[in-house]
Amino acid sequence: MPRTLKVAAAQLGPNHLTTPREEIISRMIKLLQSASNLGAQTVLFPETALTNFFPRYLIASQTELDAFFEHGDSLPTSPNTKPLFDEAQKLGVDISVGFAERDKDGKGWNTQIYYSAKKGEVIAKYRKVHLPGTKEPFENPDAINQLEKRYFEPGNLGFKAFRTPDLIPGAAKKGSEVKEHGKGDPIMGMLICNDRRWAEGWRCYGLQGVEVVMCGYNTTGYAPDLWGARKPMTPEEAEVDAVFHHKLVMQANSYMNSCFSISAAKAGLEDGKFDLIGGSCITDPEGHIVAEAKGKGDEIVFAEIDLEECRQGKEMVSAQA
Ligand code: CDV
Question: What SUPFAM superfamilies is this protein classified in (predicted)?
Fold first, then answer.
């Protein structure tokens, strides 16, 4: 029996320092509506979807910095973001959104949440573990900074897979008669950007039977100070290489963990100077890309996937090994 799920990555074009939050939310709502028109049941938005990728800047003023953050648990009701969650509920489409979270103790986190439209609540939260970059800006005034270690704590929620209810009709529930694996609600996991390059997050999810890994990202196309001494490359060559590595890890880890993956970029030239790669894609458990973004602007990447395809690699092959 197929377990079909219609999924989408909502790639965002650049958000600038000067882009009003309402404008970003309204673009996200348009993308959500387009995905819903295609039949999507769940839509992934990128890392720090609600703002530009502000860790590029050294921000001294606490008030200025706070403007980039939201309080995690209140996202569906905060005036800044409520319209997006209301639309998701109206359309009956789940969403996963990346944003900068300020917790009640004042700590900052690079966070992704999963909102179930039918339940009308956030059912899972993930905080980025692998924070790239530095605490202090580079000495080179022309370097592209990534001050994530300055603004965020390393994620403290682990890699907890979760089930997404009400997406597959007739899915077996806990305690039901059906005892076979792979008949229940979809099992999902979240990663944020740099996390996708390290095996342990994927493996933790894989060992929990994950069927779909969602990963939002902001990946700079050219940042020699940040990425260290590789062979010299032009910005164009570096961007091709960055897209190659992005797809390499999405494809290889989907294959190794026999799961689908969805990745959503914030792409294009942010603030007129920080070029982010595109390459949002949906990958199957055999490691093949089944859908991918064509450009670097706002774009929906959509696929109908059959979670049954995860079974072969999870059961047959390992059972014989
Ligand atoms: N936002 C990120 O985590 N970006 C990193 C860059 C700095 C390498 C990435 O892994 O794409």
Answer: Carbon-nitrogen hydrolase (SSF56317)
The pLDDT score that the predictor gives to residue 318 is: 56
Q: Tens digits of per-residue pLDDT, 126-171?
A: 999 999 999 999 999 999 999 999 999 999 999 999 999 999 998 9
> Residues 261-280: pLDDT tens digits?
999 999 999 999 999 999 99
Task: Give the pLDDT mean for 43-56.
Answer: 98
Q: Is the overall model pTM greater than 0.90, yes or no? A: yes
Closest protein CA for atom 1 of ligand 1:
218
Is 266 designated active site? no
Tell whether ligand 1 has an atom less than 6 A from the beta carbon of residue 274. Answer: no
231/237 Cα distance (integer angstroms): 11
Residue 217 in contact with ligand 1 by CB distance below 6 A: yes
For ligand 1, whether the C-beta of 194 sits within 6 Å is: yes
Question: Are 268 and 297 contacting, i.e. CB atoms less than 8 angstroms apart?
Answer: yes
* Side chain identity, residue 20: P
201: containing domain: 4-320
pLDDT value for 320: 47
Which CATH number does the domain housing residue 273 bear? 3.60.110.10
Q: Which atom of ligand 1 is nearest to the CA of 227?
A: 8
Q: Does residue 277 line the site of ligand 1, with CB under 6 A?
A: no
Distance CA 223, CA 310 (A): 36
Beta strands at 281-283 and 289-292: parallel, antiparallel or unpaired = antiparallel
